[in-house]
Amino acid sequence: MAYAYLFKYIIIGDTGVGKSCLLLQFTDKRFQPVHDLTIGVEFGARMITIDGKQIKLQIWDTAGQEAFRSITRSYYRGAAGALLVYDITRRDTFNHLTTWLEDARQHSNSNMVIMLIGNKSDLESRREVKKEEGEAFAREHGLVFMETSAKTAANVEEAFINTAKEIYEKIQEGVFDINNEVTSAVHFHFFDLESRREVKKEEGEAFAREHGLVFMETSAKTAANVEEAFINTAKEIYEKIQEGVFDINNEANGIKIGPQHSTGGGAGSAGGAGAGAAGGGCC
Ligand SMILES: Nc1nc2c(ncn2[C@@H]2O[C@H](COP(=O)(O)OP(=O)(O)OP(=O)(O)O)[C@@H](O)[C@H]2O)c(=O)[nH]1
Ligand SMILES: [Mg+2]
């Protein structure tokens, strides 16, 4: 779908604060009660409208666990917005905010809009951090603040959309350079631009052969070979699993066993993952 802008977001904060659940609530309008630890990063997307303009939010949900910190740091780059999340029922997650903020400021664009989120507002009886404390921290550090519940969906839309409004205002004020990759809409042109071709198909094939890669020319514009590129990659991975090359019990390999997995060798469905805005999987 066409859009006027694409805003890249990153969601950060300690493990278990509800980052993946916030994303799932925003993209799929549902709640996942079980903590399914994020490994590395996951991804989701949704279209919103601001000032009559279509804006695509591309959201990177990072792993809160310390072990993944060096991977997740690389995702700050090019982010226009960040949701910094703590859990109102766990004071330690609030105490770690300064460290998160230092990390974010060090690795991101200086104009990045940071929204501070106190999540799990539905668990009032277990509250350890007062709303006023969140407000004070935000004021002190120049952040926008909101308490949310990924369970009841309270303020979830607002958190994502208000961040986009702040970014949009900064664009209007000329603070963001929209010709920079950070906020501008991205256009891909590949082999639909045959007349402007500078690299022969044979050169791509030769490079791939030489380095043991699979090769394909695609057009994200006409959709030519796009399905094939993603699905053929999955087929290669699936074959490697069958051959026992991948250790599927080690999630660090980028493979996770799902609830429908059976060792009985069923074919499984290789087909399209279903359209829609939500790319991905949280929880
Ligand atoms: N009651 C309540 N539970 C929540 C809420 N948000 C998340 N949870 C629960 O908190 C746990 C952790 O949620 P996740 O979204 O997986 O946490 P995360 O921040 O993504 O954790 P990592 O991926 O390890 O960094 C899960 O059991 C969720 O069901 C909320 O708003 N209210
Ligand atoms: Mg997560």
From TrEMBL:
One of its GO terms (biological process) is protein transport. GO terms for molecular function: GTP binding; GTPase activity. It is a lipid-anchor. The keyword Protein transport applies. Pfam families: Ras. It is found in: Endomembrane system; Golgi apparatus. It comes from the Eukaryota. The keyword Heme does not apply. Its main location: membrane. This is Ras-related protein Rab-2A. It comes from Papilio machaon. The lineage of its organism: Eukaryota, Metazoa, Ecdysozoa, Arthropoda, Hexapoda.
